[in-house]
Every structure is written in C-alpha cells, then in structure tokens.
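step=predict obj=Elongator complex protein 4 n=375
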Amino acid sequence: MAASCCTNMSAVLPSGNVGISSTSFHKKSRSKLASIPGTRPSVQNGQLLVSTGVPSLDYVIGGGLAVGTLLLIEEDQYDGYSHVLFKYFLAEGAVCGHSIFVASAREHPGDILQNLPAPLLDDVVNAETEEEIVNINQSVREHQDSMKIAWRYQNLPKMQTSLASSSRFGHYFDVSKSMSPEMLYSVSCHNFYPGNEVSLDSVPMIGNKNTVYMKLLQSIQRVIRNEGFDGACPQKKQKNILRIGIRSLGSALWGDDICYQDNPEHVHSLTMFLYALRGLLRTSLTVCIITVPAHLIQNKAIMSRIVKLSDTVVGLESFNCSEKRTNPLYKDYHEGLLHVYQIPRLNSLMCDVSEAKDLAFKLKRKLFTIENLYL
C-alpha cells in the first residue's frame, strides 16, 4: 500500500524533479512604479512624487508633490513670493523634461515661460549651501548664548533646511537669471490665456458656470488626452509628467466675482471647476499648482470649500508693509512666514506631518529657502 502511494506521487512530479517542492504558491513581487525622469517614490506610501522646484518646500510637505494631486498656494498680499514659487515649479518641470501647461489671466503665459529662473550649477549650489549653513548655525548659536531657548524648541534640529540634503531630487534656481531659450525649446509647452478665449468685460455664464473656467477645463482635458497623459489609455511613447500651473485663479481677471462680493452671483462656479479638475488629475500623470488671492475672497465659506477641494495647501504671509518687518523678533526673517494648512493622506490613514510648525521663508541673492522660525 505504501509502495503504491510512493509510485503515484512520483508520477505527479515532473521527470528529474523528484524531491523538489511542487507548491503552487509564489512570492508576490512588488509592482514597479513608472520610471519617469524627475520623479521618485515616496518612502511613506509609495506614491510617485515630483519636486516643487524648492527642495526645502519638498521637505516640509512630505518629500514632494504626489502625481495626480493639486497644490494650492494662498497668495501673499502683494503676489510677489507666490509668483516666485509658481515659476520655480514650472522651471523644475523644464529641467526634468516634463510637459508644461500654463494658465494666467494677469500676465500672458508666454511671458511667464520666458522669465523662468535659470538652474544653478552644482558647484554654485554647494558654495551657496555651505555659506548658508554657516550663517544659520551662527545665528542659532547667538540665540542660544543670548537667551535660553523655550522648551518646545529644545528637541528640534539646529536649523533644518533641505539645502543640506545630498539628494538630487529637485534642483536649485537663480532668480536673478532667466532660463536659456534652448532649454525651453526642448520642452512641450501649452498655455491658456483668457483674453484669447473670450472678452472679460462681459463673461458669459451658462447655468451658473463661468465659461472661462469651462474653456480652461476643456483645454486641460484636451492636452491630457492628445498628449497621452490619460491613465486610462497607455502611453505609446515614453511616460512623462504634465505640470499644470494656474495663476491667481478666482480673481476678477478670470471673470469671477468672489473677490469683490460677499454674496457672489455665481458662488459655485470656481468650486465646480476644482471638483472636475481634481477628477482629471486623479486619472492621469499630471500634477497641478494653483495660486489663489485668498486675502481678497470676501466669503470665507467659499475659501473653505476651495481648501477642501485641494490636496496640499500652503499660505504665504509677506512682511511687506507689515509691522512684523520692524519687529525685532523677526529681524532674521525679512521676507515672511510660511503656513502649512493641509497635507494629503494618500494610500495611508495618516499624512506625513513635518516636525517644524513655525516656518519662515527667505529670498536672498540667488536662492529661495524655507527655514524653521526661531524667536
């Protein structure tokens, strides 16, 4: 009986493989992320990330911007520093070879692309970084010598800036120089200017929908489908990222009235656009940055809905014409403060929250940096 069992078992096994396990279970291999220049997987949730163009901002928001998400920047009152971040985002895309879509009602998108900052060489970056770190450490030592640091700062790093990072994810740019035309010629650029689409003196409405927003959404959708960024249709050529930048959305220049009326006539026009745009982003290899004049929006309920329809939300508080500029507590931070209002939860139950809560930004000489705020 035992002999017959052995005979039957040997008949099941392939010839020459007697004694080798014939189990049908195999080790499940991880799915490989798309290999796209200028991207890397998140160490927290495996989401594909791109750089904002400011490495210190990447550090603050959890490593970078996740593909398929929207970054909302609440503009400072003078729209100077938010525009700098806007151009850094586009310049990073140009350096990485990503496709670019620019929409602006204030300045023609072509002029924005012509004035993108030039990338810094590695040796220049290293020199600027070393000098910056020396100045930072010296400033911290002066504070420690002159007064005892509050208990909530004792466990923080000396001064965390992503400039000290050796990672090549993200680049540094010189705001005093413009990017060479040759670099831009090699990048696929698309633009949307409302003045070319419809007269803003009398923006027509269709069922509480701003037609300018509708045309903008259709233009973005057309680029996504025609250029092969739609996730539903596999790209025939090498995979790439589409970077979308929309400046001062919701301002009067877009034909919207939320910035000068407490009870705007078409209150849901912008939020409906953001809802549809977010759906496009989720199903495509795209990432979007939008600046909004939050300080001009009269109805705070509308601003609250705009924030909820975004993924990552940061705000800039400029010290220009502010009492904080002359306040001795902020003597080392002449530009302003950075507020992180929202970080997305992607493929996880919790979001990656930065250890530093008090942040300030500086724009000196060639670099835009974000640092911990020490009072």
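step=describe
The two ends are 86 Å apart (CA to CA).
step=end
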